[in-house]
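*** Protein under study ***
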Amino acid sequence: MKTILTRKSFWVIAFIYSIVVLSLKYIFHSPAGEFLIQIGYLALFIGIVLFIGANIKLIISSIINKKKGTSEKKEVR
């Protein structure tokens, strides 16, 4: 699967975004900086929720696959 961003590009964009946001918020005291900070908090929250959801889905699917595997083995014997 081809990725859109390389790891290096992602970190460059993240670093530039953080410099712009922090300078708008704390140096220029701009409402745009506060808005971008709130967008960052929202993105962090969504990322955490998606990460937890993916792990829960993985755990549930592995439990279901284990039960299917053990039930098939019992039927064969």
Q: What stands out?
A: Residues 31-76 form the longest helix (46 residues). Helices lie at 7-27, 31-76. The mean pLDDT is 86. The chain has two helices and no strands.
